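Figure 2 data, in text form.
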Amino acid sequence: MKKVSAFILAALLFVPAVFGQSADKMTDVLKSGEVTLGQACYFFATASENVKDNISYEKALEYFKERSVIDSSCSENDKASLGSLALLANDVFNIQGSLCLSLFKTGRYAYRQMKADGVFSRYDDPALIPNGHKFFSVLTRCLDKYELRSAE
């Protein structure tokens, strides 16, 4: 339990220092029982360094819709599953290691590779809707494990 608490504390201190997002948006995510797709897109889009950190959740979602990462029928208030976080991470970070992932850029193979890399635990389910702490844990692990893709 101490390790989990220490990791969450490190994530809370590390993520704002790297991105510089407003405290309000981080507080919204941490207070939420379930992370929305708009919130997840915002933090992954700003992590990509291709967008400014003053964009809205809606604009962040549009960024990933334009890149065909997120289905066009999704809205910013839809819940973000761990599978959808894997899709976002696959677009933002240079995730390598799986032949299937290199051939088929789908959430299934991104999730499986991230699970093999230790980003997700073996008990995590791709359909799980994370809370704010779990979301920042995943984002921080991605930052530690993977390189950012070059700006496109």
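Caption note: The helical segments are 2-19, 23-31, 37-47, 57-66, 82-92, 99-103, 107-116, 132-145.
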